[in-house]
Amino acid sequence: MAISLQKGQRVSLDKIAPGLSAAFIGLGWDTNVTDTGYDFDLDASVFLLNSQEKLISDNHFIFYNNLTSPDPDKSVKHMGDNLTGEGEGDDEVVIVDLRKVPQDVQRIVVTVTIHEADKRGQNFGQVRNAFVRLVDVATKEEVLRYDLEEDFSVETALIMAELYRKDGEWRMNAVGAGYQGGLQALLNRYL
Questions:
Q1: In a domain, 33, yes or no
Q2: What is the pTM of this model?
Q3: DSSP 100
Q4: What's the pLDDT at 128?
Q5: How far lies 70's CA from each of 38, 62, 75, 175, in Å?
Q6: Contacts of 148 (CB under 8 A, 6+ apart)
């Protein structure tokens, strides 16, 4: 039975999923029926941060044009861009091998942005049923889920959740923070 997180809630992965070694992070959403003249293209991205909560290098920004982390084990893998978000379930997926993430990576931030949101007149107020979930790769069981319930009527970028190290273990935080300025706002925060 998966644990449903509330905004701001933090949990230890060691306590709720002992032995978890690799996580499948699924992100999903639906768009409202609105006519902006353009299709919606939402993109999941991952920022691999150091202890100062800054991007370690450009290659530590994982997205549709840079699908794997730069470490030899490729411990973080984006499974590709979904251009429509149509259908049930996960729209985009990131797999994290928690055992192999290099020690300089202290925080893994999972985000969603709307591609060309300003040009297309789109924002997260036009998106519903957004969620992030963490699944144990070995057992295929959903461990955690965070369903976004806020209405972000002007925001074009969201920090959905973050995995972070504390006291030698991985923890997850359901962030649910919205930003105006799309992907650039997130890049500005972490560079």
A1: yes
A2: 0.92
A3: T
A4: 86
A5: 34, 9, 8, 25
A6: 130, 131, 132, 158, 160, 176
Please tell me the predicted confidence (pLDDT) of residue 76.
98
* 1 domain residue, yes or no: no
Question: Exposure of 27 by Cβ count < 10 A (0-12 exposed, 13-18 middle, 19+ buried)?
Answer: buried
pLDDT tens profile 53-106 = 999 999 999 999 999 999 999 999 999 866 554 556 788 999 999 999 999 999
Q: Is residue 116 part of a domain?
A: yes
pLDDT given at position 86: 56
Task: Give the separation between CA 126 and CA 115, rounded to whole angstroms.
Answer: 14
Q: Which of 32, 12, 28 is nearest to 20 (CA)?
A: 12
**DSSP conformational letter for 35:** -
Q: Domain range spanning residue 149?
A: 11-190
Average pLDDT on 148-162 reads: 90
Local structure of residue 2 (DSSP, 8 states): P
Q: Does residue 19 sit within a domain?
A: yes
Structurally, the chain folds into a number of domains equal to: 1
- pLDDT: is 138 or 38 the higher one? 138
Determine the residue type at 68. Answer: T
Q: Cβ of 69: how many Cβ atoms within 10 Å?
A: 26
Instruction: List the CATH number of the domain containing 111.
Output: 2.60.60.30
Q: Which residue's structure tokens are 């070995």? A: 138
Tell me how far apart the alpha carbons of residues 136 and 19 are, in angstroms, rounded to a whole number: 9
Mean of the pLDDT values across residues 16-41?
Answer: 85
